[in-house]
Amino acid sequence: MQKLMIAPSILSADFARLGEEVNSVLEQGADVIHIDVMDGHFVPNITIGPLVVRALRKITTAVLDVHLMIEEPDAYIDDFAAAGADWITVHVETCRHLHRTIHRIKELGCKSGAVLNPATSLSTLDYILDDLDIVMLMSVNPGFGGQKFIPSTIAKTKGLKNMIETRELPTAIEIDGGVSPDTIGAIAAAGANIFVAGSAVFGRDDYGLAIAELKARASDL
Prior knowledge:
The protein has helices at residues 18-27, 50-59, 77-83, 98-107, 153-166, 184-190, 199-202, 207-219, and strands at residues 5-8, 32-38, 63-69, 87-91, 111-116, 134-138, 172-176, 194-197. The chain is of the alpha/beta class and 221 residues long. Strand 6, helix 5 and strand 7 form a beta-alpha-beta unit.
């Protein structure tokens, strides 16, 4: 069984104190820092770029998980890798040549991942799954934090887990959107092992308690 990892999303952090916020969640049990990059085109919001990743890389050795919710990921992959990203995930909906993009990420020394929106079929992974380190399933429609979990993600996660096990792959399954103490148990039982949590961590007064509760619920299979 793969290690269960909590990946707080800085989209929900206090950007006036971003370095403090990141160090705080890491000190209190977070495993990965999730960085949502939005361009205002693929999703209806604009967030951050490589400069923020570079700034965070200076203050932590923790895994920086860069999720590119942008229309032209190929134009920016090199910049995010150079800034210090450890994982780079791209949406299958935005990549004209997904195989090329995924292998470019690997060439840059990062773990590579493909992301599927809620209505995107698992069949889009048929000819790329063997090349992926991570598959991220969006459990909300991307663009905003604080949305409710889409229940059909559970069946989709089970289907993905079955695909991975059938091929005997080590691919991790990451879930992004609506992860909370109420949903994480079912998500973990379906086969996911990386959980992006925004308001479920940064929206709580005690980050350590929030992370510990998420891990306990995920482990209660």
